[in-house]
Design a protein that fits this description.
By secondary structure, this protein is an alpha/beta fold. The protein has 20 helices and 20 strands. The chain has two domains: 5-298, Nitrilase/N-carbamoyl-D-aminoacid amidohydrolase; 323-641, 3-Layer(aba) Sandwich (Rossmann fold), CATH 3.40.50. The model has no long low-confidence stretch (mean pLDDT 95).
């Protein structure tokens, strides 16, 4: 294993129905090919040694003996290999025939798992030939002179790495009311393998895909599904060879369907992510049904990752790449933000809002949310008090956009220039106005917040906060300045998504004059505008020039909080996601900035205002993120320095 990844494979072998010798050779071909690609766990389809569609031939000694001999030959072919291979075959145990999965490694059969739920409806007649695992009356059998454990209660666990464990279920088991994989998960399995022979019907592929994704999410596991290809008999059904690898609800790899040849799909499952998410979720998912499991140990040798990781690392994980999904997410987030603000207004019996508008992204999104809330509550837009407060760094572009946008919405627009009051404050505290340091900047931010709060008191209104999730993570806000509000509608929205939400609103809800203003705001550099502009009136204080690109910081935030990734892994992932866009040294420097600021700025999050959670990453101290304000970042920085 490298950086917490485990390489798994789902395979479908070319086969001839009931020809165990031919099928054995094809299975061995795939095993050898998978070994060359550093696969560590490989699953084949249900009854792949014989074929699933043998019918009453399953009752014949010739087929059963041939299947067992083929199993022994396949096991021998895995000699000197640490890769786990899982193959399917019928096996006679105490006079009954079971539909089984056999686990192979290093020339040995490590265990046998019989199928629990046998389908016996429509085109399925498995009760005619097989016995369910609940009827098994032994817990071990002899195979090729060795005692092998057998049962549906087996959890295979890596020696010296007990969090790397896997369980097996077979086809119908996944479709049952209580899939065995749910219990195997409670027994410690982080990887789940399904050996299947699902036939194809109209729309069944989509249903099967949703089942795999759902079960991987429910179990917080990697789920590998391998189904028989089109070589199976077509007497009454057609088989497609659907191969899928899912991780915690996400499809990592999926094959085309309907093929005859050998096929192998490979993906790298993020075991660290699964373990991290289980730490969070498992206290609320304790077993309510008492079951015991037998632990079967296996040797595990971590293989180095190949040059290309076998999974996609999204460089914009907060933003769906698919246009339809992105539009749906933007609309849904706007609805969550709007409803959160409406509820706060109804609860406090408040009919007015106060918002500071700057012509920047965040205040624009907060203004849009406020407008929607006012309209949905049936209140006049004049109840929305939009205050623009030009300071020393305000440019004509942002000032004009804030004015024009507020006028288009028919808000109660107020212009309050803060320069004179800030100059007076500099004089009061003895600060040189020509020294453009943090005091110079924060005086302006706190002056603006004071105005907003005092106007809200005067009008009986709520101050709507504008800071977004990315700024909260980096502490990029003035403590008791723009850091503070009465309800922070953007607190769950990362910067990379703010742009898309505004753009969606511009395209779908805004009229043409408002749309033109919004598009210009989207084209404006991100800046707090606290330092004087250039001689030509252009913004010179650009946030991303100081901190690094927000898309990179959002990348770090997402994978650190959602996947539990540490510095080394974050850098490893970023180098691949942003390959060709940013250098490794840039990414490392920005990661160092992120870590330092994330730790040092927790005190701002500890007292942040209420705001709606909109995604799976939240830094609210009341819900998702409880961290001491004086926690040390040294371990994280040391790990990064050692790379």
């Amino acid at each position: 294993m490298n950086y917490g990844y485990v390489r798994v494979g789902a395979a479908a072998n070319e086969l001839r129905v009931s020809d165990c010798i031919f099928n054995k050779e094809k299975i061995i071909e795939i095993i050898k090919a998978a070994e060359k690609k550093s696969v560590e766990f490989l699953a084949f389809p249900e009854l792949c040694i014989t074929g699933y569609t043998c019918g009453d031939l399953f009752l014949k000694d010739t087929l059963l003996r041939g299947a067992k001999e083929a199993l022994i030959n396949i096991a021998e072919a895995t000699n000197n290999s640490s890769m786990i291979s899982i193959v399917g075959l019928p096996m006679v145990i105490n006079g009954r025939i079971y539909n089984c999965a056999a686990v192979l490694q290093n020339g040995k059969v490590l265990g046998i798992v019989p199928k629990t739920n046998l389908p016996n409806y429509n085109e399925f007649y498995e009760d005619r030939w097989f016995t369910g695992a609940d009827q098994l009356d032994v817990d071990e059998i002899w195979i090729d002179g060795h005692i092998v454990p057998v049962g549906a209660d087996l959890v295979f666990t890596a020696k010296d790495r007990d969090e790397l464990a896997f369980g097996i279920e077979i086809c119908e088991d996944l479709w049952s009311i209580l899939p065995p994989s749910s219990f195997l998960t409670q027994g410690g399995a982080t990887l789940l393998f399904n050996l299947s022979a699902g036939n194809e019907l109209v729309s069944k592929g989509e249903f099967r895909r949703n089942l795999v994704k759902s079960q991987s999410s429910r179990c917080v596991a990697g789920y590998v599904y391998a189904s028989s290809n089109s070589c199976e008999s077509t007497t009454d059904s057609v088989f497609s060879g659907h191969l899928m690898i899912a991780e915690n609800g996400n499809m990592l790899k999926e094959s085309e369907r309907f093929f005859f040849e050998n096929k192998l799909e490979i993906a790298d499952v993020d075991l660290d992510r699964l373990i991290y998410n289980r730490r969070i979720l498992q206290p609320s998912r304790r077993s309510v049904i008492s079951r015991s499991y037998r632990i079967i140990s296996f040797d595990y040798v971590s293989l180095p990752l190949a040059d290309e990781i076998q999974r996609r690392i999204d460089k914009n994980p907060f933003v769906p790449e698919n246009r339809r999904e992105r539009d749906e997410r933007c609309e849904e987030i706007l609805s969550i933000q709007t409803l959160g603000l409406m509820k706060r207004m109804k609860h406090t019996n408040t009919e007015k809002l106060v918002i500071g508008i700057s012509g920047g992204l965040d205040s624009t999104l907060a203004l849009i949310v406020s407008v929607r809330a006012i309209i949905k509550l049936g209140l006049p837009l004049s109840n929305l008090i939009a205050i623009t407060m030009p300071g020393f760094g305000t440019t004509d572009r942002t000032f004009d956009n804030s004015i024009n946008l507020s006028k288009q919405y028919n808000t109660d627009l107020r212009i309050i220039d803060i320069k004179d009051s800030c100059l007076q404050h500099f004089k009061d505290i003895g600060h040189n106005k020509d020294v453009h340091d943090v005091t110079y900047e924060n005086v302006q931010a706190r002056e603006r917040t004071q105005i907003l709060m005092d106007v809200a008191n005067k009008e009986g209104a709520l101050v709507v906060g504008t800071g977004d999730l990315s700024e909260i993570a980096l502490g990029w806000g003035t403590y008791n300045g723009d850091h503070m509000s009465m309800y922070s509608v953007n607190s769950g929205v990362p910067k990379t998504l703010v742009r898309h939400i505004i753009n969606w609103y511009a395209e779908n809800e805004a009229d043409e004059p408002i749309k033109r203003i919004l598009l210009d705001i989207l084209d404006t550099p991100i800046s707090p505008e606290l330092l004087p502009p250039s001689n030509t009136g252009e913004i010179i204080q650009k946030t991303e020039d100081i901190l690094g690109p927000y898309e990179v910081h959002d990348f770090f935030l997402y994978y650190m909080q959602s996947y539990g990734a540490g510095p080394a892994k974050l850098l490893f992932m970023a180098e691949r996601a942003f390959n060709g866009q940013y250098s490794n040294s840039q990414l490392k420097q920005w990661l160092k900035v992120f870590i330092k600021r994330f730790f040092s700025q927790q005190f701002k999050r500890s007292c942040m205002p209420d705001g709606p959670k909109v995604g799976n990453v939240s830094l609210s101290p009341r819900t998702d993120w409880k961290m001491p304000s004086d926690a040390s970042a040294q371990l994280w920085l040391s790990e990064l320095d050692n790379i």
